[in-house]
Design a protein that fits this description.
This protein is an alpha/beta fold and 364 residues long. 26% of the residues lie in helices and 22% in strands.
Length: 364
């Protein structure tokens, strides 16, 4: 199971141990190390705060954020968009966190902006889009060359919840071409879902039992004519969709949904990091089960779920503090070869008999 925060901190720890950086600021000529952080959401701000807290004058630190402010997913969209344009965030107005508030916030600070201001992090933040990052050197030493675009750009690294995983079903294209009277049918990912009122008096199928699927189904029930909730488990209200007929949707148990106007896919997100993909540092492989030339690899058929039993901000602060302290005192880490052996052993154990698509979506 691949968590973006784990990837981020693993990548940063590797960078801190082995690399110089070409960051979007002028480089010092005194031999300082330059550290680039991508993204001003929970993990990025925690990492920035931990590094700044070292008060190390030999570090030149910059954080690049492509949105208009800090906060990541929790920063609302400035305006709605429609497919195929991706929204900046999947945040919807009626969203309530599915974990206790203390686990979703930095210790002592309810909002990302409060944390940023308290620790005077704004001088280290630039609003750029990272276009590419390529490693120049060997596995032992080198630097990252980073290309950025000034100003608020289009999506590059949006973190965990930006690239929707949208399965397709037999017959859906023909189903979409037909209308229910004057109403055009639609299939959208939950990333685009905002207000349940827009589905008033409609028949809707919601796919998936993750947080977005549950929220959409319960909210739509107050406005829609009828809501079908399609899940992978036979024990749930409706099993998964088998196929689309011209005027019905057929489920795996042979039952039908008639007169459906819209299908909302709460089916998770693909782990994509375009600024590393474009340079070949991050491989996207549908059948990935093995390491590929020492590159990070993602299997896009396996949406990466947000861990349930994780204290987001407190965990980010704890891990970032450890990474920063390890940067200041390398003796906190074991030998690199030993650490890699442990990492490879854990990866191999996860791959052994592991179906990531089913395991990651077992609650859907």
């Amino acid at each position: 199971m691949f968590d973006v925060r784990q990837y981020f901190l693993l990548l940063v720890s590797f960078l801190l141990q082995h690399g110089d950086f070409s960051a979007p600021r002028p480089q010092a000529s005194n031999g300082n190390k330059s550290i680039a952080i991508v993204g001003a959401a929970s993990a990025g701000l925690a990492m920035l705060g931990a590094l700044v807290d070292l008060q190390d004058d030999t570090l030149d630190i910059v954080l690049s954020e492509q949105r208009r402010d800090v906060g990541g997913t929790w920063l609302p969209d400035p305006q709605p968009v429609h497919p195929p344009v991706l929204p900046e965030t999947p945040l919807y107005p009626l969203l309530h966190t599915n974990t206790p508030v203390p686990t979703m916030t930095y210790p002592g600070f309810p909002y990302h902006q409060d944390f940023t201001l308290q620790y005077n992090l704004l001088p280290y933040i630039t609003y750029h889009t990272v276009l590419s990052a390529s490693w120049v050197g060997t596995s032992e030493a080198g630097r990252w060359d980073i290309l950025v675009a000034g100003g608020n750009g289009h999506a590059t690294c949006r973190g965990h919840d930006h690239y929707p995983h949208s399965p397709t079903f037999p017959g859906q294209d023909a189903w979409l071409r037909r209308r229910n009277g004057s109403r055009r049918r639609e299939i959208i990912h939950s990333m685009f879902y905002r207000e349940p009122q827009q589905y008033a008096n409609q028949t809707v199928v919601v796919v998936g039992f993750g947080a977005s699927g549950r929220d959409a189904a319960s909210q739509l029930a107050l406005y829609a004519r009828k809501v079908y909730h399609s899940l992978r488990s036979q024990k749930r209200p409706r099993p998964e969709i088998a196929y689309f007929a011209p005027d019905t949707i057929v489920f795996a148990d042979g039952s039908h949904a008639h007169g459906v106007d819209a299908v909302i896919l709460g089916t998770g997100y693909d782990l994509r990091i375009p600024f590393l993909e474009v340079t070949g540092e991050f491989a996207v492989n549908l059948n990935a089960r093995h390491r590929s030339d020492h590159r990070l690899t993602t299997n896009t058929s396996s949406p990466s779920p947000r861990p349930i039993l994780v204290s987001d901000c407190p965990s980010d602060v704890a891990q970032s503090t450890y990474v920063a302290k390890a940067r200041a005192n390398a003796s906190l880490l074991g030998p690199r070869e030993v650490l890699l052996e442990v990492l490879y052993a854990r990866e191999d154990a996860l791959r052994s008999g592991y179906d990531p698509f089913w395991t990651d979506l077992r609650n859907d």
